[in-house]
Write a structure and sequence with these properties.
Distance between the termini of chain B: 23 Å
Structural class of chain A: alpha/beta
Structural class of chain B: alpha/beta
Strand order of the largest sheet of chain A: 2-3-1-4-5-6
Number of strands of chain A: 13
Oligomer: heterotrimer
Helix content of chain A: 25-40%
Radius of gyration of chain B: 13 Å
Strand content of chain B: 15-25%
Largest interface: A-C, 55 and 79 residues
Largest sheet of chain A: 6 strands, mixed
Order of helices and strands of chain B: HEHEHE
Number of domains of chain B: 1
Strand order of the largest sheet of chain B: 1-2-3
Shape of chain B: globular
Number of helices of chain A: 11
Chains: A alpha/beta, B alpha/beta, C alpha/beta
Strand content of chain A: 15-25%
Helix content of chain B: 40-55%
Number of helices of chain B: 3
Chain lengths: 346, 77, 435
């Protein structure tokens, strides 16, 4: 029978109210309060321990609290930790997230919890921890607890965990392919019929617009500014020596601008899979306008040009690789005291 | 783009696919001639193309020097 | 426009002295077939082979897939391409169902694809469940194999072979006749619906884009056609889009969304027509396409539209622009597309741009889904191409996945290079969900 630890704060752990929020962690070999109810709702496991910690202690001395918890857990066998439900209690929800993340990282056991959508613990931990959607007050206990127990039961039973909406947890940042029982032609037709009839329908790809970045200060004096150039057009030396990928790029090339101040046909090529290469191969400067930079340097219109250009491909490049490559490029630019960047895409 | 700007570098995105850049949330966007030929129009003579490239880079410098409060799209054509 | 399609269902394909179709078995005279597909000798080392569902067979690199068709009235199966220009979409069309003809080459690249006839790959696209008569060949002029592949001779060869095979059933009685028609039902007052199909059109040079009545769709401007034209050979596939998202001619000929809408004509909808549109290499051309599509739909008094995408990347812009243009004319639109959620599901967003006004989308799955495919006993084509050639869905090596082609012959790749994995024309039973 699988063994479960339930984590509760001082209140649900029946220690006391707010005045006991500084309670240090304790491990009881019994089912306290909520833990007992959870135990009755789970078939594939048994609650053997209740781990209780004051919300203030865990919140203000997190490292110490976790270290103490680790000592308490020494020699204890367990397969899963269930924390909460925490509803809208901000410290409690955040602590539930913390303990779940810690358990997963240190003990490689699954840990799950439940809380209300606006609980700060959700944004902080939903990527790493399964957080079930819960109500906004303890009055939701009768609904939230069975949901949490049922979900924990599924995991303990080795059942396949379905997508967020189906199982009732907050999306963890992954969007995965799923096979449905219906082909796209029927799904599209049915969706259109509902839309035409003014009936509610559910889009398969909900859209959320992304957030903004603060504008960097303007370049007031280009003649005394140090510039660098980056391209995602995939212009590389002939033969693609760094084997930059035609799509889904994970790396970039760092190529010295030729001393002659121009890029010559035949010495460079495009390896970007998403457009016709004819123009790029005939004149690479339609993607990397080195002739202009050279002229502007002579005319003293720009102060300095970083002697390398950075080149990768921009199609199917995913966000994390793009971010990482950008960070690596930023390191080179900082080294050379670059002050402004011109970047082009295909 | 956003990652480089987050690190404090003023940056201009020269691209034909303006809606993509807009959708990503880039702050300074300068329209390019085309996907396979961002900096110049291949239908023009080589001399005119070199001029187009010069004009577009010049505009890029101006865009970098322009103070914007929110996402702005610039164009030379 | 009424098209009557006479279907013959093939059960097996063999080689013999005479090309004929009898009792569900297609016999092919290999020499004749090869001569038919390679009339000018632009291909060399041409060989024929058959891949059957359930067999331990892998086919790659696939450059074209075409369904065998023939017309009893002497018209070419693909007017303007394999024969003289003529109208499509009306009359009697003979069709051999349950099979395709495939052109398989030596070099892979941006658009070439893989199909497995058994194992986890089999259900990913329609090709795993039909008989595929494949010809393998090389270009006689090997210079053509460098750079980007227009695959002109392979593609024409596949269409010529499809026509040659199709003729084997002429004069026989089909197992069934299916009528596709859009009679005038204006009295029924059903909602008028158009389907918009994004074609594989993007380049400014000839040879890569789709063919419309044999005409290269370079610099294409949106065009209205009758739905039956698409089923009857008006559209032939180009050499442009990654395999996973690629509409082969086979997909146009058997277009599930077109057939579904034709089937509902007179019952739930008034199917007003199909608008073909293009991927623009500049914003101006994308705007032109979106505006033209919306204007044509308005001209047809459309109440609703279904937009069928192909490819992804900058065509996502065409997707959203077109849908928004239709919605601005109060034409309620559903878009069908695949998503790129990445090899690990964390790529956000899953389209290159977003517009919340596209509020009704059917997602056909993850274009970058990682596929683990076992070793196949038999390979039709060139297995080494997996690591040697620049497929978008394979890699020479990777710290996370290792090389795409392993020593034991098994493969790890992503769906970009699995033929028609994304099934946007309606095949796909996949979708994406937030986990």
């Amino acid at each position: 029978m699988k063994k479960i630890i339930v984590y509760l704060n001082q209140f649900f752990g029946q220690i006391g109210g707010e005045e006991f929020a500084s309670t240090k962690p304790m491990l009881k070999k019994e089912k306290v309060g909520v833990a007992a109810a959870i135990d009755t709702q789970i078939k594939n496991g048994e609650v053997e321990h209740t781990l209780i910690c004051g919300d203030d202690f865990m919140n203000e001395h997190t490292e110490e609290a976790l270290a103490q918890i680790d000592s308490l857990l020494e020699g204890i066998e367990f397969d899963m930790l269930i924390a909460g439900p925490a509803f809208f209690a901000g410290r409690y929800g955040t602590n539930c997230g913390r303990i779940c993340k810690h358990i997963q990282e240190r003990y490689q056991k699954t840990a799950v919890t439940s809380m209300y959508e606006e609980n700060p613990g959700v944004e902080l931990f939903r990527k790493e921890v399964y957080i079930l959607r819960g109500g906004d007050a303890a009055s939701a206990m009768q609904k939230d607890m069975p949901k949490l127990s049922r979900f924990a039961d599924k995991i303990l039973g080795g059942e396949k965990i379905l997508w967020a909406q189906e199982e009732g947890y907050f999306p963890r940042g992954k969007r995965l392919q799923v096979t449905t029982g219906e082909t796209a032609d029927n799904r599209a037709f049915d969706m259109l019929m509902r839309k035409l009839a003014g009936k509610p329908f559910v889009t398969e790809m909900p859209i959320k617009m992304p957030d903004k970045v603060a504008v960097a200060p303007p370049v007031t004096d280009p003649a005394h500014t140090r510039f660098a150039f980056v391209t995602t057009s995939g212009i590389v030396p002939i033969g693609n020596p760094d084997k930059i990928q035609t799509g889904s790029a994970t790396r970039f090339g760092r190529y010295a601008f030729p001393e002659e101040g121009v890029l010559k046909e035949g010495e460079w090529e495009s390896i970007h899979g998403g457009y016709d290469h004819t123009y790029a191969n005939a004149d690479p400067m339609t993607h990397v306008p080195l002739d202009v930079f050279s002229k502007m340097l002579k005319e003293e219109k720009i102060g300095y040009l970083h002697p390398f250009f950075y080149s990768t491909t921009g199609n199917h490049t995913n966000e994390s690789n793009s971010k990482r490559m950008a960070q690596e490029i930023v390191e080179y630019l900082k080294e050379d005291n670059i002050q402004a960047v011109i970047l082009n895409s295909a | 783009m956003k990652e480089i700007e987050k690190s404090g570098f003023p940056i201009v995105h020269v691209a034909n696919m303006v809606p993509v850049s807009e959708s990503v949330g880039t702050n300074k966007i300068l329209k390019a001639y085309g996907i396979p030929y961002p900096w110049s129009d291949p239908k023009e003579t080589p001399v005119r193309q070199a001029e187009q490239r010069y004009e577009l880079v010049e505009k890029a410098l101006i865009v970098l020097g322009t103070d914007v409060q929110e996402q702005t799209v610039f164009s030379v054509f | 426009m009424r098209l009557d399609v006479g279907n013959f269902y093939v059960k097996d394909i063999n080689f013999g002295d005479v090309t004929q179709f009898a009792d569900g078995v297609l016999t092919v005279n290999a020499e004749e077939a090869i001569a038919a597909l390679n009339p000018e000798g632009n291909l060399k080392n041409v060989e024929l082979d058959v891949a059957r569902p359930g067999e331990n067979v892998r086919i790659l690199p696939i450059k074209a897939a075409v369904a065998p068709r023939a017309r009893a009235d002497g018209r070419a199966a693909f007017p303007g391409y394999t024969g003289d220009m003529a109208s499509c979409g009306e009359g009697e069309l003979y069709a051999i169902e349950n099979m395709s003809v495939m052109a398989v080459g030596k070099y892979g690249g941006w658009m070439e694809g893989v199909v497995d006839m058994s194992g986890p790959g089999q259900p990913l696209s329609p090709y795993g469940n039909i008989l595929n008569l494949c010809f393998t060949a090389e270009n006689t002029d090997c210079m053509i194999d460098q750079g980007q592949h227009a695959n002109l001779h392979y593609r024409l060869g596949a269409h010529l072979l499809a026509e040659y095979i199709g003729k084997a059933v002429l004069g026989q009685s089909p197992e069934e006749w299916i009528t596709y028609d859009t009679v005038d039902i204006s009295d029924k007052k059903l909602p008028r619906v158009v389907m918009v199909q994004l074609l594989s059109t993007f380049y400014d040079i000839l040879g890569f884009d789709d063919l419309f009545y044999g005409n290269d769709c370079v610099q294409f401007v949106p065009t209205l056609i009758h739905p039956t034209e698409m089923l009857d050979g008006a559209l032939c596939s180009g050499s442009l889009i990654p395999a996973g998202q690629h509409n082969s001619t086979y997909d146009y000929q058997n277009h599930p969304m077109v057939k579904k809408l034709l089937g509902e004509h007179g019952k739930a909808i008034d199917f007003a027509g199909v608008i073909l549109t293009s991927i623009g290499p500049t914003i101006e051309r994308k705007d032109r396409a979106a505006i033209r599509v919306a204007d044509i739909a308005e001209l047809l008094d459309a109440d609703g539209a279904i937009y069928v995408q192909t490819s992804d990347g900058n065509p996502d812009i065409d997707f959203f622009k077109c849908i928004v243009a239709l919605e601005e004319k109060k034409i309620k639109t559903v878009g069908i597309c695949s998503e790129s959620t990445g090899r690990d599901g964390t790529t956000q967003p899953s389209k290159v741009m977003l517009d919340a006004r596209a509020d009704a989308i059917v997602s056909t799955g993850n274009a970058a889904e990682v596929l683990e495919l076992p070793k196949m006993e038999k390979v039709i084509g060139d297995l080494e191409s997996i690591v040697r050639d620049p497929y978008p869905g394979t890699w020479e090596d990777s710290t996370q996945f290792g090389p795409s082609l392993r020593e034991d012959g098994s493969v790890i790749m992503d769906a970009h290079s699995y033929l028609n994995n994304d099934g946007m024309s309606g095949w796909s039973d996949k979708t994406c969900k937030d986990f």
